[in-house]
Write a structure and sequence with these properties.
heterodimer, A: alpha/beta, Rossmann fold, 3 domains, six-stranded mixed beta sheet, five-stranded mixed beta sheet, 11 helices, 16% strand, B: alpha/beta, Endonuclease, Chain A, 4 domains, eight-stranded mixed beta sheet, six-stranded parallel beta sheet, 27 helices, elongated
């Protein structure tokens, strides 16, 4: 089939012409004609370049380039046909071209055809318009591609993603895709079979579920740009670290260290629940310290010797000390943007507790919290023994018991 | 509250044991309208609370601190002790909930009835004294060791109080003299000063309503005290190493600087770190700053990156003198090699002679896109099981990490984990040099593989539920796993950056707005003569592709020859089956990309088929000549699909002897496929 009959190519040309003739305008008032076209295949990329080059130069008056990652396969109508030169001429601001002598300073490349050789690790945010000429079947790759232009420091108001789909009936497309793909995922399993803990059937189920999930995400891409973290097929490590809290603390402490040091233990604050987060019910988050405990039992309690427990007013312990991340997330959500005490809530609390005289309810919640600490601590210590990870169980003294000497660090009353 | 003890009426001693307590003495003697004089090193609100009924009724109390706890000028750095003195250690937890009320009531009482002075000099006045004179001139006094605390006065539950030694003063002369002694001190301006305002100021902190934000940070302040200590001690930025003077450091955004600081600390503590920041947050720059830090310590650094990202790294090497390098002044001198170079024994990578390279001589290795090392693939072996070639993973571990000097590791990957936490384990092994117990002492993770296997089990159970609710996963995972990741990774998402560095982001103009994606549904042929995508799809799905399926034509009597050495449950037949599936996917993907690419693939496939047909026909005619067929030779060259490439590497190299195959049937099927092809 000849290129002039290629309907898909024609549609791409229409998009390019539209952008070239009606450029967007960036925050600094510059016209922006740039388009970045991704395809999964070098053959397609070369085909596009060959068929668009003269048209783009003569009809539209823009420069065009091709990068495919192959040796000496890169091509351009402006400057050196070298990978880095092409990218610099395509995105001269982000690549600081002005500081580089011997490079073109006036003209720039406005149309770049690329394979996934640049889908990672490049800053091309001068561009605000990205076309996926074919949908990569792994949606993560699509996000990575978009990440080239969707970056901090972009001078563009908006960034646009355009996806070419092979057929309007996406559900059919997905079904078909699955038929071939689900089985072949098994290859993955076989490749690593030697140290898998799971039975092959389980893994197959798992991968199929995962593919289904991927498909849902792929469909979503039709209407929104997702973040990489939205794809739980890859576990996002940032769910696991407490670094954000540390950094937040480090920022706060710069000007407030003395205040924090001087503040006594046992302080509390009163906050309201958040209507947007129904999981957070009225209750108390206690922060306790186990007196005389070292830090060496931190496989049982990650914050040893501190214990965070969130107990709801119905005595149910929603999160215990093994889940500090969840508790801190709630803490932050309810508190981080509340720099002053909320008078109405405090007054209500004083009323309900007869100015702090009637604390039976909070005593009971505290008892529930301690019981849960005791229970969970034992359970985890035993589990750890069974998992054969450490040789010795905690000594009697180290064990958390109801009588253990706890100190109240803070408590947060959620009304 | 302990009642008077058996011996208390027989003895003037008050010891908090058998002979009674000072607290009971005070309860007994304080009357409505009494005037009190007390000398004590401590004063706690809980002691007040225990005696509240009596103390609230008095006329006046003069309280003299025997230690200068509230005099700031003497020791401005002393901070926490004050808190401690007023709040009292060792109290029952439940009492602590009462703190605010007690503090408020105590403050009211002090304001109303109490004068407080303090001795100015430390370690000068050691005696403790309680003197009471009632409205009728009746005097009582006790002296000894008890401070004005719950434990000192013997007001706590049995067994929690201090053992004290106090003696009731039973002679009138001594009681009067003690009062005079107290008055002399109280009025000696050289020795004492008024601290009532300071005490009240402090008490106010205990009873005023607190801002939620402050309580939040107070909580963080304590649970992360170790981190804060480490940070102070680390102080990496103001040491001799002038990282802050470098061009790269000053090119970093605030959140990148924080990431760099964190990573350097982790590398120094644990020998390694994974930076798993999301795409677009600038991992390369962060890594450059970390590299600079170690280069400033005269460490030798090796960067291992995917071949296609080489230039991303070589551009900053000073030796290349690139006009594109904004950090020329930093004189970066690290070595850059590609992941694929690990498969080579000789030849050149850039201008590095791989044959001459001393792999073991690096202090820090930076692995870009480290998920490429998520599989601990074993090297190729010969028939006797002897290794003939190391895998890339083995090369990395044996030649770089374990040999020569101790190597620190920095891993960079936005997606270090794919489907399986084993991915993570294998990357962590790079840090530990394969040791499973390396984090036992530092992080308390006794076994890496156990911890991750455990986590993987939870992960699988969770994934099976299918709702992908991460909260549920986090609840199920055990804390050793959290700890491990928390200690070894820096992982921020775009959302996190937007939340925690909103000011920086605003200064930079923020992220651009994302417009709603546009969808384009492309026809294939403007003349509509070419079959539709959907129809082609169906056709491709029905392809037999017998080209890639030699084992389907194995004669039964020879089958056993080809069954050796298979991976458990994964027969050659299955392997080919999957391969064919993936080939079909490749056809579909290429069709979806462009008719042009599809045509290329089709033509290449047809050439292969025709070539094989020729060979089979020659074999049929002569029963000899090139009698073997190798599955690898049948593959099409234009494979760009990473997943397909991986699939092709599965299994052993296998050659089929034509004599063992039903070549007639094979040829027949091949010709059928060929005729069905479209292009």
């Amino acid at each position: 089939m000849k290129p002039e009959h290629d309907a898909k190519l024609k549609q791409l040309q229409a998009l390019i012409a539209a952008k070239a003739q009606n450029p967007t305008v960036d925050r600094d008032g510059r016209a922006n004609r740039k388009i970045l076209v991704f395809t999964a295949f070098a053959d397609t990329a070369l085909y596009l370049y060959d068929n668009l080059r003269d048209w783009a130069r003569q009809e539209l008056g823009i420069h065009i380039a091709l990068v495919t990652g192959g040796t000496s396969a890169d091509k351009t109508t402006l400057g050196k046909a070298d990978f880095n030169h092409i990218l610099t001429n395509f995105s001269p601001l982000s690549k600081r071209r002005a500081q580089i002598p011997n490079m073109p300073q006036e003209e720039a490349i406005d149309l770049l055809i690329a394979t996934d050789c640049i889908s990672e690790g490049q800053n091309l945010q001068d561009c605000d318009y990205l076309v996926n000429y074919d949908i990569h079947w792994n949606p993560v790759r699509i996000i990575q591609r978009f990440g080239r232009i969707d970056r901090i420091g972009s001078r563009n108001e908006t960034v646009q993603l355009v996806n070419f789909w092979p057929t309007p009936d996406l559900n059919k497309y997905i079904r078909l895709k699955n038929r071939v793909e689900a089985r072949m995922a098994l290859v993955d399993i076989a490749a690593t079979a030697e140290d898998n803990l799971l039975r092959p059937e389980d893994i197959q189920d798992l991968i199929e579920d995962d593919l289904k999930y991927r498909d849902k995400q792929l469909l979503k891409l039709k209407d929104e740009v997702l973040d990489l973290e939205d794809f739980s097929e890859s576990v996002a490590l940032n769910e696991f670290t407490l670094d954000d809290f540390r950094i937040e603390l480090a920022n706060y402490i710069e000007s407030n260290r003395r205040l924090l040091e001087d503040a006594p233990m046992g302080l509390y604050a009163v906050v309201a629940t958040d209507p947007n987060v129904p999981q957070i019910q009225p209750g108390v988050i206690y922060c306790l310290r186990q007196r005389g405990a070292g830090e060496d039992l931190d496989t049982i309690n990650p914050l040893q010797p501190y214990f965070l427990v969130y107990v709801r007013n119905d005595q149910m312990v929603r999160y215990t000390f093994a889940q500090p991340k969840q508790i801190l997330d709630i803490y932050r959500l309810l508190c981080a943007r509340q720099p002053v005490a909320q008078e109405a809530l405090c007054n209500l609390f004083d009323q309900e507790t007869e100015n702090g005289r009637e604390l039976t309810q909070y005593n009971e919640l505290l008892t529930s919290a301690i019981k849960s600490i005791e229970r969970t601590f034992k359970k985890r210590a035993i589990a750890q023994l069974q998992a054969g990870r450490s040789g010795l169980p905690p000594t009697r003294q180290e064990q958390v018991q109801e009588t253990t000497d706890f100190e109240l660090i803070t408590w947060l009353v959620i009304q | 509250m302990p009642t008077s003890k058996a011996l208390s009426h027989l003895s003037g001693i008050r010891d908090n044991l058998e002979r009674g307590s000072v607290g009971d003495f005070l309860k007994d003697k304080i009357q409505s309208g009494s005037n009190l004089s007390i000398v004590s090193a401590y004063f706690t609100i809980y002691a007040y609370a225990a005696l509240q009924a009596e103390l609230d009724s008095i006329e006046e109390l003069r309280f003299l601190f025997g230690e200068p706890r509230f005099i700031k000028s003497l020791d401005p750095d002393r901070t926490d002790s004050k808190v401690f003195e007023i709040l009292e250690n060792g109290l029952q937890l439940h009492n602590q909930l009462q703190q605010r009320r007690v503090a408020r009531e105590c403050a009211a009482w002090i304001t109303d009835k109490v004068h407080i002075r303090s001795i100015k000099q430390s370690n000068l006045l050691h005696g403790k004294l309680y003197h009471i004179s009632d409205a009728h001139g009746q005097e009582d006094a006790i002296v000894g060791s008890s401070n004005f605390t719950v434990r000192g006065l013997g007001l706590g539950p049995d067994g929690t109080n201090n053992i004290e030694l106090n003696l009731e003063v039973d002679s009138r002369r001594d009681r009067e003299d003690i009062k005079r002694w107290f008055d002399e001190l109280w009025h000696n301006d050289g020795l004492v000063q008024d601290v009532k305002a300071d005490v009240l100021f402090f008490l106010e902190k205990l009873y005023r309503d607190n801002a939620p934000q402050f309580v939040y940070y107070k909580t963080l302040f304590h649970i992360f005290e170790r981190f804060l200590k480490d940070q102070e001690r680390g102080g990496l930025l103001d040491k001799d190493i002038r990282l802050t003077d470098t061009a790269i450091w000053n090119a970093l955004f605030e959140f990148q600087k924080d990431g760099v600081k964190g990573a350097i600390n982790k590398i120094l503590t644990h020998n390694g770190c994974i930076i798993a920041d999301s795409v677009g947050l600038g991992k390369t720059y962060e890594a450059l700053a970390i590299i600079k830090y170690f280069e400033l310590r005269n460490d030798k650094v090796l960067v291992l990156c995917p071949k296609k990202l080489r230039e991303n790294w070589t551009v900053y090497q000073a030796q290349n003198n690139s006009p594109l390098n904004p950090f020329v002044d930093d004189r970066f001198s690290y070595t850059v090699l590609s992941h694929t170079d690990l498969s080579r024994e000789s030849g050149f990578s850039g201008d590095i002679n791989l044959g001459m390279l001393n792999w073991g001589n690096y202090d820090l290795i930076v692995i870009d896109e480290s998920h490429n090392f998520r599989n601990n693939t074993k090297g190729k072996k010969d028939e006797d099981g002897n290794r003939i070639r190391k895998s890339r993973y083995e090369r990395l571990m044996e030649d770089i990490i374990e040999s020569g000097i101790k190597t620190k590791v920095l891993l960079l990957s936005a997606t270090p984990v794919n489907n399986d936490l084993k991915d993570l384990r294998n990357q962590l092994y790079v840090m530990t040099g394969g040791s499973d117990q390396a984090f036992a002492a530092t992080i308390g993770v006794a076994s890496l593989s156990d911890t991750l296997a455990n986590a993987q089990r939870r992960f699988t159970e969770w994934a099976k539920r299918g709702d992908h609710d991460t909260r549920r996963l986090l609840e199920a995972l055990d804390s050793a796993f959290f700890k491990l990741l928390d200690e070894l990774t820096i992982a921020r998402s775009r959302k996190h950056i937007l939340t925690y560095y909103s000011e920086t982001i605003d200064q930079l103009g923020g992220f651009p707005k994302r417009a709603v994606p546009k969808s384009v549904y492309a026809e294939i042929d403007v003349r509509k003569r070419f079959p539709s995508y959907d129809r082609l799809n169906d056709e491709i799905s029905n392809y037999q592709l017998s080209l890639f399926n030699p084992s389907g034509y194995l004669l039964a009597q020879y089958a056993h020859i080809y069954e050796v050495d298979q991976i458990e449950q994964f027969t050659q037949q299955k392997r080919e089956h999957f391969l064919i599936g993936m080939m079909k996917v490749n056809f579909l993907k290429r069709l979806e990309s462009s008719v042009h690419s599809f045509a290329i693939t089709m033509n290449r496939t047809i050439e292969k088929i025709e070539d094989l047909e020729d060979r089979i026909q020659r074999f049929q005619a002569l029963q000899e000549g090139n009698p073997e067929v190798d599955l690898e030779d049948l593959q099409i060259e234009d494979i760009e699909d990473e997943e397909l490439q991986q699939a092709l590497q599965v299994g052993k190299k296998l050659k089929f002897n034509f004599a063992h195959l039903n070549v007639d049937r094979w040829l027949d099927d091949l010709q059928k496929t060929n005729n069905n092809s479209i292009c």
